[in-house]
Amino acid sequence: MIRSKRVAAPRRWVAVSIVAAALSAPALAADPKPGLWEYSVEMQMPGMRLPVQSMRNCLTEKDLAERKQFAADPKAKCTMANFKQTGDQVSYEMVCDTDAGKMTISATGTVTAENMQLDTKMKMTGGQMQMPEMSQRITGRRVGECKG
Fold first, then answer.
1. pLDDT at residue 52, as a whole number
2. What residues are paired with 136 via a beta bridge?
3. Is residue 117 within 8 Å of 130, Cβ to Cβ?
4. What is the pLDDT of residue 139?
5. According to the model, what pLDDT value does residue 75 have?
6. How far apart are CA 57 and CA 35, in angstroms?
7. Can you spell out the DSSP letters for the chain?
8. What's the CA angle centered on 101, arms 100 and 106, to 5 degrees?
9. Which of 94, 108, 114, 132 is deepest in the core (most CB within 10 A)?
10. Which residues pair with 78 in a beta bridge?
């Protein structure tokens, strides 16, 4: 695994963007089933494609009711705007205040009770780190019941 400052910052954005997507679209677009969910995040920026990041998260009914699913980074302060849903199609915009600066996200995708796919565009401004616009595809699926 190659570690560098250039890769470390986008990984932090992966966590923030998963939180942003999760706190908005799945809770509002459909009633996801509680259980064990698995996510993959593919991220690109000009001249660089990052390795796919994967994670699993156990979601309870309480988590879903409180829209806490996928809380990979509880420090992120995100607000959503312009949420639209037609059937299982969703779109929204989100702004997150992070330690690295202000992240603006726009997302479109599909969300159902057992699957999701979101395509996002992200731009970081302010703070110490200026990065070009990044794009990512987040896919998720319910893989079973939570254990223990």
1. 95
2. 43, 120
3. no
4. 92
5. 59
6. 8
7. ----HHHHHHHHHHHHHHHHHHHHHHHHHS-PPSEEEEEEEEEEETTEEPPPEEEEEEE-HHHHHTT-TT-S-TT-EEEEEEEEEETTEEEEEEEEEETTEEEEEEEEEEE-SSEEEEEEEEEEESSS-----EEEEEEEEEEE----
8. 115
9. 94
10. 96
Token representation of residue 119: 């395509």
Cα–Cα dist 24/28, whole Å: 6
Q: How far apart are CA 53 and CA 104, in angstroms?
A: 21
Task: Give the model's pLDDT for residue 144.
Answer: 96
The owner of tokens 């997150």 is 96
Q: Say if CB 44 and CB 26 are below 8 A apart.
A: no
**Residue 3: what pLDDT?**
40
Q: Write out residues in the chain with pLDDT < 70, as ranges.
A: 1-31, 64-76, 129-130
Show Cβ contacts of residue 5 under 8 Å, excluding neighbours closer than 6 positions: none
